[in-house]
């Protein structure tokens, strides 16, 4: 075709060179800062408090981080589509209570088949999570209510339900196979939850990068109108994302319940805030469209490290929440500053 | 999913007998939005292999019509037939499946995704929800290569220039089999060269029997491309004409409903003292580079130039909205150091931004509040921090009368007003205080013909009342017919100053483009500068 060569000459990629540089800078900022900070934190901690480097402590950090990584990767999905999920911690509580209560009820019916009781109990917990997620998704997608308000409402509903069902009393009596054998199971001396989390993170990474569902999440969060006119069934995928997020939270709730050994309406109270913090520290944009699960996992690890450091240094637990608050504001501040710079 | 090469769409079904049967046949189309009849009894027909131009003012209903055609929103009445089949419940997804590919002005690209991901958005090659990335990559490369666009599939859309985004958008439309291609002012952000390439692609597609709907109000493009032209005005069909048989003047008459010259008032030139002057003005981002410019009392000065040439930024820098690196600004003989909007307003200079929604108006607030927002520091409106609602209301009423804002209710929320009336609400801000210098940035973008004429008359009033008026506009006729003096801006610099009779389209256009590039191409600057 005539003009091909001329075109090539004219469209000299001025913009390209510039943008490539900024992309590299961005990547460096996002990827480089967090691991660097964590390494510095570890070295300093190891020097001040040798207990930090003991394997028991490191395993403890990893286990705590695992729960947070899981739930934060759920939060990440909702943030990527430009939403918000405040109900995530309440879902953990509701799941915990539902799982424990249904196992107790089932064990009376099938006293000998532990595996069946456990599977059904887990399914009930996941079902409770899915129900909250579906409700969140439908109200956000169909009624166009701000996700902030919707999930604030379901937060209240779910935690209210959990409290009402238990009257605030922990629910004991789940099969030992679940609480002792599974909850405290170790493989190669590492808690089983670490393996499960790793598997889930890989699954989510694969979903975000290699499936339509993942691509559509990014597209919807990036420009919902564009996704719609491109033929993406936006409403469906918004509902699906909220449901997936709640199911991941439910899974976290089940693992925590197994670990704690009882169903508790107070479980996961801090996880909502921490999940958002971990996601934002991991570079997820609050405006949607941007976020990678591997970075979110790093963000969660970072938060777990900071908490562990404060515990080892005997920082008052009331002061700890203040520190976490400061970290969150800093993370959001840096994120906003960066995205402004990139836009310029 | 089919994987044919892009530029080989399926030939029209039915071959010879149906060769001239219309691809699209619309009859009696109606579309209602809350409070407006956006389309009323529209007839539209598209044949295979033709370029059918949709022509009309902003707000005439062109965008609504192409949105109906591409399934973004359904029509409320009338029949829409595609290849002989009546379409109902069309949505964007189905429209693309049957080969209707729109290229919208506001891009359907997700900025955080790569070009590759965007091109396939909604139509990924996948199996059970799992993406086949390598196959998509091959196809994207092939399409970009075929089109001769210099884009890299891996780039994020947010990092592209507007022209590159436009090219990505076109590539997206052509990725799959196309039977109807809709282009909504595609050249608005393209360079001359890119435009020529686009026209070649259009010629190719025509030869393959693709029907092309082309929305534009650029005469040169219509002459170059159109087979037929359908003119819309205020949501109604004015007529469909053969492009060869109709003159430019006739088209403009059809579009505006009045003769061309009647729209622009004659403004007496009573140039007095220089009120605003810049020397060596350079902004930090270099979009304004070393600009010497002045405007006198009673004078209308036009600034013309391509999108992105820096003409907007010049006014914004003077008003204190862009960072200035060096240079001087003098307002009424007094030097201005570090301009800021509040400061400039106080000293009698007012800037009306082009993006009224983003920068001008608080949409959910009332007409009254919007009108007086910029004047609340005046004694007439506030004392000791308390507002005087009564005097606010009085002024608002007066402004509504003077500018004929419709509806005339000062408490009406601005979001319910049309583009023209919104602009009038904005302009009221400049009329409440003693302003000597007005800077208009695209004063008539997005507003209807009637309101345009009123705004031109307001500019006449201002200038003849002794104010200095600067009109920055991408609409050449505006600059040509209103200005006593005109500057042409190119890549941040003023490249020409024209006065009186010199201000004609050909002269201005000649200064629009970069010589180096033209020499390289070996083509005369603008043989079709209509």
TrEMBL record, chain B:
* Any Pfam family matching the protein: ABC_tran
Record bears the keyword Signal: no
MF term (GO), any: ATP binding
Task: Write the record's keywords in alphabetical order, separated by commas.
Answer: ATP-binding, Nucleotide-binding, Repeat, Sugar transport, Transport
ABC transporter domain location, by residue? 24-259, 269-516
SUPFAM superfamilies per record: P-loop containing nucleoside triphosphate hydrolases
Q: Establish whether keyword Repeat is in the entry.
A: yes
**Gene3D superfamilies listed in its UniProt record:** P-loop containing nucleotide triphosphate hydrolases (3.40.50.300)
User: Where do the TM regions start and end?
Assistant: none
Protein name (database record): Sugar ABC transporter ATP-binding protein
């Amino acid at each position: 075709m005539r003009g091909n060569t001329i075109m090539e000459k004219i469209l000299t990629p001025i913009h390209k060179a510039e943008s490539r540089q900024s992309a590299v800078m961005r990547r460096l900022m996002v990827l480089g800062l967090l691991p660097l900070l964590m390494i510095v934190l570890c070295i300093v901690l190891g020097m001040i408090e040798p207990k930090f480097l003991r394997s028991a402590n490191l395993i403890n950090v990893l286990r705590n981080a695992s729960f947070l990584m899981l739930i934060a990767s759920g939060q990440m999905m909702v943030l990527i589509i430009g939403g918000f999920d405040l109900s995530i911690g309440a879902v953990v509580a509701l799941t915990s209570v539902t799982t424990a209560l249904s196992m107790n009820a089932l064990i009376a019916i099938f006293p000998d088949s532990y595996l069946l009781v456990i599977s059904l109990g887990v399914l009930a917990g996941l079902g409770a999570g899915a129900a909250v997620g579906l409700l969140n998704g439908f109200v956000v997608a169909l009624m166009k209510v701000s996700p902030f308000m919707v999930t604030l409402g379901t937060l209240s509903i779910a935690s209210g339900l959990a409290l009402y069902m238990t009257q605030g009393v922990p629910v004991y009596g789940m099969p030992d196979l679940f609480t002792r054998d599974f909850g405290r199971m170790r493989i190669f001396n590492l808690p089983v939850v670490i393996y499960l989390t790793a598997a889930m993170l890989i699954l989510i990474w694969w979903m975000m990068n290699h499936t339509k569902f993942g691509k559509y999440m990014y597209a919807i969060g990036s420009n919902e109108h564009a996704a719609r006119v491109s033929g993406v069934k936006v409403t469906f995928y918004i509902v699906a994302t909220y449901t997936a997020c709640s199911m991941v939270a439910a899974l976290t709730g089940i693992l925590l319940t197994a670990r704690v050994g009882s169903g508790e309406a107070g479980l996961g109270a801090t996880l909502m805030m921490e999940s958002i913090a971990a996601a934002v520290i991991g570079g997820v944009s609050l405006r949607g469209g941007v976020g990678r699960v591997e970075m979110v996992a790093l963000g969660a690890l970072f938060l777990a490290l900071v908490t562990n450091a404060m515990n080892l240094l005997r920082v008052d637990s009331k002061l700890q929440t203040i520190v976490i608050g400061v970290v969150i504001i800093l993370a959001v501040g840096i994120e906003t500053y960066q995205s402004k710079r990139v836009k310029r | 999913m089919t994987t044919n090469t892009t530029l080989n769409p399926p030939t029209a079904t039915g071959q010879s007998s149906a060769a001239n049967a219309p691809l699209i046949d619309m009859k009696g189309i109606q579309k209602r939005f809350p409070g407006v009849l956006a389309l009323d009894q529209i007839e539209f027909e598209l044949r295979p292999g033709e370029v059918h131009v949709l022509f009309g003012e902003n707000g005439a209903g062109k965008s609504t019509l192409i949105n109906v055609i591409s399934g973004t929103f359904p029509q409320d009445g009338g029949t829409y037939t595609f290849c002989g089949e009546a379409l109902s419940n069309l949505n964007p997804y189905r429209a693309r499946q049957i080969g209707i590919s729109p290229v919208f002005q506001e891009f359907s690209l997700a900025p955080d995704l790569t070009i590759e991901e965007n091109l396939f958005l909604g139509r990924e090659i996948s199996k059970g929800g799992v993406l086949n990335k390598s196959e998509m990559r091959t196809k994207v490369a092939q399409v970009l290569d075929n089109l001769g666009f210099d884009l890299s599939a891996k780039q994020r859309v947010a990092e592209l220039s507007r022209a590159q985004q436009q090219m990505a958008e076109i590539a997206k439309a052509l990725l799959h089999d196309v039977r109807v291609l809709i282009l909504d002012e595609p050249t608005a952000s393209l360079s001359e060269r890119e435009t020529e390439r686009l026209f070649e692609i259009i010629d190719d597609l025509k030869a393959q029997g693709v029907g092309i709907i082309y929305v534009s109000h650029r005469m040169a493009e219509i002459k170059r491309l159109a087979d037929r032209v359908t003119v819309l005005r205020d949501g109604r069909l004015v007529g469909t004409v053969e492009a060869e048989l109709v003159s430019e003047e006739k088209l403009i008459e059809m579009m505006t409903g009045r003769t061309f010259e009647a729209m622009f008032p004659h403004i007496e030139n009573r140039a007095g003292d220089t009120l605003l002057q810049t020397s060596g003005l350079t902004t930090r981002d270099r979009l304004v580079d070393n600009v010497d410019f002045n405007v006198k009392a009673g004078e209308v000065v036009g600034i013309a130039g391509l999108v992105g040439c820096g003409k907007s930024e010049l006014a914004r820098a003077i008003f204190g909205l862009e960072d200035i690196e060096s240079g001087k600004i003098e307002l009424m003989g007094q030097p201005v150091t570090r301009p800021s909007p509040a400061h400039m307003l106080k000293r009698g200079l007012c800037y009306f931004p082009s993006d009224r929604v983003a920068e001008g108006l608080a949409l959910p607030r009332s007409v009254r509040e919007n009108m007086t927002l910029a004047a609340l520091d005046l004694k007439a409106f506030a004392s000791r921090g308390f507002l005087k609602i009564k005097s606010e209301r009085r002024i608002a009423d007066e402004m509504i009368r003077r500018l004929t804002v419709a509806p005339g209710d000062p408490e009406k929320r601005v979001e319910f007003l049309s583009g023209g009336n919104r602009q009038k609400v904005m302009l009221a801000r400049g009329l409440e205080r003693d302003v000597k210098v007005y800077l208009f940035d695209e004063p008539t973008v997005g507003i209807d013909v009637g309101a345009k004429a009123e705004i031109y008359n307001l500019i006449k009033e201002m200038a003849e009342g002794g104010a200095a008026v600067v009109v920055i506009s991408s609409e050449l006729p505006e600059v040509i017919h209103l200005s006593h003096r005109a500057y042409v801006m190119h890549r941040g610099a003023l490249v020409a100053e024209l006065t009186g009779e010199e201000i004609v389209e050909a002269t201005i256009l000649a200064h629009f483009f970069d010589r180096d590039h033209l020499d390289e191409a070996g083509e005369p600057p603008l043989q079709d500068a209509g």
